[in-house]
Amino acid sequence: MQQSPAKIQIAEEFRAQFLTPELVEEIIQEQKENYRFMYNVINKSYKQGILNLFLDGLIDKKLLEEFGVE
What we know:
Blueprint: H1 5-18, H2 21-34, H3 36-47, H4 53-66
């Protein structure tokens, strides 16, 4: 499911304001608890300093959910 351009813009603004290493770690931990395979993929990339596309999407989803954007 593709996001609308307006949602993408909002997510980018939220990232600029609220993206922290703690938030990324929280998302990675959630993946470890619930989706072990994807945890291995995103954690490996993150440890190499890379926010892969899957983690990017999870970050956007988390920020949009936290601020009630549907």
